[in-house]
Amino acid sequence: MQQDDTSQKIWTKSFTSLALTQFILFTVFYSLLTTLPIYVIEDLNGSESKAGLVVTLMLASAILIRPFTAKILDLLTKKRTLIISVLAFMITTFIYLFIETFTALLVLRFIHGISFALVTTATSAIAADIIPKARRGAGLGYFAMAMNLAVVAGPFIGLSLLQFISFKQFFAILSILMVVSLLFSFMVTVHEHAHARTSLSLKLTDLVEIKALPIAGISGIVGVAYASILSFVPVFAEENGLETTANYFFLVFAIVMIASRPTLGRLFDERGAKTVLVPSLVVFAIGLFVLSVTSGSVLLLIAGGVIGLGYGSLLPGFQALSVQSTSMDRSGHAMSTFFIFYDLGIAFGAFIWGLVIAGSGFHAMYISGAVLMLITTIILYVYLTKKQKNDEAGTN
């Protein structure tokens, strides 16, 4: 009995070290995401369009390299990939200290995106491996909290520090944080799955996990809707005279997401994906609808809480389903496939919603997002029902 309890532990040394690696890395990522546009405009004398480009280029390079990350994990092993990618992220962060031109910054951002794609695939695949199978929903929920906390910590640290120090000093502090992240990555123990020696040739199965495609596709659609939050809430708030409240929107969003995650994670493990993910999509749709009719601070904060409750369990739930769709030695491919579609969804959503706003306004965008999530709810319900029947047929 004692042995079984031990085998079901989530917060092992490896898991805690991996979560801290992830938290520090994402804190640095979101600090840069928030402050680099200011750096481009104020220190490099660039325009707003150039400021946006430094954000877009990093995500674009991450999307380009993402299909090959699972193959790299196979060639190098997950632990080596983790350490090498965190080290590369650290070195790239350090190089910001020596950037003097906008062109050099673009090159650096492109390289940074490659290491970011590698490290996020590696950490997610390792987390799926070291979490006990029976507690994967809860465990991946806890692991995702590292990123959720960084969403709040990164911009707060970045914008607060820059009130007192220069950008050069700021980049030096971020570099030191990445040294700490690298140290934690060495403390992660990974039991690599034995498999045949990986060749350098590329097949479709080296790029994606076919079995994970349905849930990855659904994740991509959710990413399209989430792009309306990630990219346009600050602009929407400014247009409605709610600039100050916009900061609290993301704070409420994060608090509700983090507070609900443990309970919903346990429910995912005990009652199944359908019990959690289908209602979560409906709640996400309701939150987008509330946002569409928002004109004051109270409704904006309510929308933030509802969206946090709905969206909070979707990503770790989809990640768990992606890993469960295949064998454990293919967990890296499953996570890579998930991120390919999710990243594409975010990128496509940011583009398409910009067109919707230009043509019809914010109200139409958030109503469209809500309708899209209700349609996705039906798709997910059908998929999970079919999956449940297949699982039961396989057991019998």
The number of domains: 2
Radius of gyration: 21 Å
Q: At the fourth CATH level, what is the homologous superfamily of the largest domain?
A: MFS general substrate transporter like domains
- What separation lies between the terminal Cα atoms? 28 Å
Task: Report the β-strand fraction as a percent range.
Answer: under 5%
Biggest beta-sheet profile: none
CATH architecture assignment name of the largest domain: Up-down Bundle
Q: What series of H and E elements makes up the topology?
A: HHHHHHHHHHHHHHH
Q: What is the tally of helical segments?
A: 15
CATH class of the largest domain: Mainly Alpha
Based on DSSP secondary structure assignment, what is the total number of beta strands?
Answer: 0
Low-confidence stretches: 1-6
Architecture overview:
This protein has 396 residues and is an all-alpha fold. The protein folds into two domains: 184 residues, MFS general substrate transporter like domains (Growth Hormone, Chain: A, Up-down Bundle), CATH 1.20.1250.20; 189 residues, MFS general substrate transporter like domains (Growth Hormone, Chain: A, Up-down Bundle). The protein contains 15 helices and no strands. The protein is globular, with a radius of gyration of 21 Å. The two termini are 28 Å apart. 46% of the residues are buried. The N terminus is likely disordered.
